[in-house]
Amino acid sequence: MDTITLWAFVALAAAAILVGFSKSAVSGANTVSLAIFAAVLPARESTGVLLPLLIVGDVFAVYNYRRHADWATLIRLFPAVAAGVVAGTVFMLWADDTAVRTSIGAILLFMTGVTLWRRRAARKAQEAGKADEAGKAEKAGEGRGNARLKAGSYGVLGGFTTMVANAGGPVMSMYLLSAGFRKLGFLGTSAWFFLIVNVAKVPFSVGLGLIDGDSLLLDAALVLFVIPGAFLGRAIVDRINQRLFERLVIAATVVGGAQLLLR
Question: Where are the transmembrane segments (predicted)?
Answer without folding.
Answer: 48-65, 77-94, 100-117, 184-204, 216-237
